[in-house]
């Protein structure tokens, strides 16, 4: 033991010295007490820092570039352009894998549709001519999309035009051909509509936010069905979209509902296939 420390111990053991509160021994005892407290605190801080450093080194790094601490949930990859409005609100729709093959067809991505949107239609600008080589009288039509829906007008209009001018659709065999316009007289309008506005447009028919209808010259396509499909078609959203367009335009062309001709047979396109197949097989085309 160093001399200075031995001397201090002897003085601490001296009853007379201890009995003097203001004496040198009392001051030494107070200093030694403070020194021991400081040493204990410093040791604890050093031990904590060393543990944290080891955890940061051993833990895997998150995809965001920062360290991932053990016990914490792994950080999700940041979306391009920042968090979406749905993510910020905490209401994040389940992701849907694009390009899935169903019935041999590459599927579009399903779109979650809100109950209501802007409440007013926006006419899709531009025109689309019938395909070259098609025959028959020209039928003019317009496409409109309710403001605020998460489906673009250009995307919807392109699908409507493709479907109507398919050889299996209403123009089959040169019966007619379809031209999309943005002005002038038209035979019908194809209108993509939120469930809430569909109920209003289709009244007094009861669509319950689920079905589509014809209302005047409008072929009202319920955006929930177009975006998410129907149980009768399962995961084949691409084929269901063809059905709902052909069915509602069929009403605009003067066709009424039909019945299933028999179990296992192909359903006519004017069967209400969104509600049920009635024992038939699904079919989206007037002339399959």
UniProtKB/TrEMBL annotation:
Top-level lineage group: Bacteria
Extent of Low complexity compositional bias: 77-92
Record keyword Chaperone present: no
Q: Which Pfam families match?
A: DUF3152
In this chain, the stretch annotated as Disordered covers 1-24, 63-92
Question: Which InterPro entries does its entry note?
Answer: DUF3152
Instruction: For this UniProt record, give its keywords in alphabetical order, as a comma-separated list.
Output: Membrane, Transmembrane, Transmembrane helix
Residue ranges of the TM segments: 37-59
What segments bear the compositional bias annotation Basic and acidic residues? Answer: 1-11
**All residue ranges annotated as the DUF3152 domain in the record:** 112-277
Give the protein name, as stated in the record: DUF3152 domain-containing protein
* Native source organism of the sequence: Actinomadura fibrosa
